[in-house]
Amino acid sequence: MSGIGKLLRGCLEFNALKKPKLLEQFKAVKEHPAPKAVTFSCMDNRIIITKLLQCDVGDMYLVRNAGNLVPHCETLSYDAVSTEPGALELGCVMNEIPNVLVCGHSDCKAMNALYGMRDQTQIKEGTPLTLWLKKHGHSSVKRYNELLNSPDGIGPLEFKIPGKTLRAYIDPDKKLSEVDKLSQVNVLQQVENACSYDMLKDKLQSGQVNVTALWFNIQTADFFMFSKEKERFLEVNESTIDHLVSDAGGH
Questions:
Q1: Of 37, 119, 175, 234, which residue is 20 to 30 A from 215 by alpha carbon distance?
Q2: 55 and 2 within one domain
């Protein structure tokens, strides 16, 4: 079966098996909306973040792009606007969603491409993909280079968010590839970028909105979350979940 054929057959299966139940869920969400998070995830076809997080209809506003990048406020203008800050405004300002998630992953093709041109991010030429990665991934490469020059190559790195500084140790157990280290650094840089917008400043300082870094290891199918208290990514499991919920603000 062709690619489009498989997708259209999926439409028929949806109509036959799931449509009535989903219509009920749509109605319930319209009457009692309670979204939990605005999520920025990579567009990699293996990372179906709503399925991985077991989300229901109405749980999440989702933006997917190459590299789970969130442009910094300094890049915003009439001629250079993108979906990501608009999603933050729609979700956290207009609809008062309390959580922002930035989720990266291992074996990321976008991060592999960024790593491959890490010495060329100032060259303002390229394809749509390489220009996107250069412009909005340059700061991640800069932080990655700081990591390489840190004691033992693990940090700490510092990321600024309103009212505090996040200190981060990356891969202290020395298990990750260089690209995967860049991927984790990138997630934290995008957290800083998401926090750069004035429209979120008061909400972030008051704790009405919390921004959280997630990272998914495709090889093991394990989630990791950055703990502000522990200053590193921790695996999400039964022994860490209470701490991580509290660390994320408890929303």
A1: 119
A2: no
HSE of 188, CA atoms in CB hemisphere, 13 A: 30
Looking up tokens 């890490």 gives 118
- Residue ranges for the known binding site for Zn(2+) are 42, 44, 105, 108
CATH for 188: 3.40.1050.10
Q: What is the pLDDT of residues 148-197, one digit of tens each?
A: 999 899 999 999 999 889 999 999 999 999 999 999 999 999 999 999 99
| 100 lies in the same domain as 45 | yes
Q: Give the number of C-alpha atoms closer than 13 A to the C-alpha of residue 209, restricted to the C-beta side.
A: 31
What is the rounded CA–CA span in Å between residue 193 and residue 210? 13
The upper half-sphere exposure of residue 85, i.e. CA atoms within 13 Å in the direction of its Cβ, equals 19
- Chain Cα centroid distance, residue 176: 19
Q: Residues 100, 129: one domain? A: yes
Asked whether residue 11 falls in the same domain as residue 72, the answer is: no
| Of 184, 193, 235, nearest in space to 213 by CA | 184
CB-count exposure of residue 9 (10 Å: 0-12, 13-18, 19+): exposed
Report pTM: 0.94
Q: pLDDT for 30-66, tens place per residue? A: 999 899 999 999 999 999 999 999 999 999 999 999 9
**CA distances from residue 165 to 27, 91, 142, 231 in whole angstroms, order as listed:** 42, 24, 17, 11
Angle 178-194/109-116 helices, nearest 10 degrees? Answer: 100
Q: Let me know whether 113 and 10 are in one domain.
A: no
